[in-house]
Amino acid sequence: MQVKSNSLVKILVPMVLMVGGFIGIKSCSSTDTTAPDTPPNNVLATLSPEELQALGVGGDTPEDTLRTLVGTLNKVRSEQQRLGQQNADILKENDQLKNQRQDVAGQIDAAVAAIRQDDEQRRRELQDEQQGLLAQIDLLTERLNSAPLSAPDSPIPLGSGSIPYSANAGTGQNELIWITPADEKPADIQTPGSGKATAQFPTSFLSEQSAAGQSKPQSPSLQNPSKEENEQPVYTLPENATLVGSQAMTALLGRVPVNGAVTDPYPFKILIGKDNLTANGIELPEVEGAVVSGSASGDWTLSCVRGQVNSITVVFQDGTVRTLPGSGQNNNTSANGIGWLSDENGIPCISGERKSNAATYLPTLFALSAMHSAGDALSESQRTAQTSGTGGITTALTGNAGQAALGKAMSGGMNDMSEWLRQRYSQTFDAIYVPPGARVVVHITQRLAIDYETKGRKVRYGVREAAQRDNQEALD
Hints:
single chain; alpha+beta; Lipocalin; six-stranded antiparallel β-barrel; three-stranded antiparallel β-sheet; 10 helices; 15 strands; 19% strand
């Protein structure tokens, strides 16, 4: 039997072979075209795993590697831009610092110039002040040489409070001119022993005989009577007696004690009227008044004056005077006195006003001391001190000799003026001043026996004759 072939097989087999050949040809052509892309894989293959890990492409495909490299490049560019901007800022800041450095140098130069200008100005001011001080020194020297030692308008005398009288006529002293009295009689009898004529007057001063010669000389027995016959007890001022209503005739000027002692205390006087001399209501009709004298001291803290009564003088109606204590009792009562003063309210310290010459003495002494120190400093600034090998110190003149001499002269002159001022002022003067006319109270601390001296001294003689003459003239 004859086998018949299938026609479909005859068609499909050639088609399959053709398709297989076409696929083989296409695969060969694709291999040739992709061959150039293999080198990156070969390049990456040559890198070690550590290097691939450092690059961040380990295990990545070529596309991933490309993206990674592009991102890294962008980062590098951004960092480069940032560094460029930072460099620009640094350059700008550097320029600013250079400009500031130049400004600081200019400021330093300006400050140095200002300091030099101030130094020059101060030097000129010091020179002007020095010239002014020298002019003041010359003016003070001229004033000291021309002005008198005592100031007539000074409220408080300087030094110890007393200026001795100079017999030589000086500048500022009033000259005394003697004027012959009109009632002087020509002298025709010479004084025995002297050979000079003595002037005569109708009534001699303090003479008990009148011009008519009516009074007769007293006998020696009447001129020197005994004490018992001369003194008659009249009144007694007991201890702790108080004399109120008294009035200060002089100012109370109490110096403040220095180291517990009063130097040259000032005296005072108190007037006591007739109506005040009473004790326990008993009047003293024959006593016209009394004068109390004493010394004063000051209290700076309380601003008041304390008065110590040393003596009292009683004046009777007929002119007889009696001073207590007597001459024999002065030694016992000179220390403590016979009484003390108080004001009308009983305060044993009378309020007053403070007076002191410290405001003029201390600034003047300070100025003289300052100028003395300035002269020493000026003289010493021109010298240089050196220490020798043996331990001694030697000084040598290395500066301006004229300024050194000027400083030495200024120092010596100020030292002499300071010494003169200390001798004149002696010490600072502080006192309490109470004006005259103050109402005070006198307190008696010792018993005072007021005796009437029949042959004692009187303020005025011939009182009765004068009183009768006045009465006759009044009747006429």
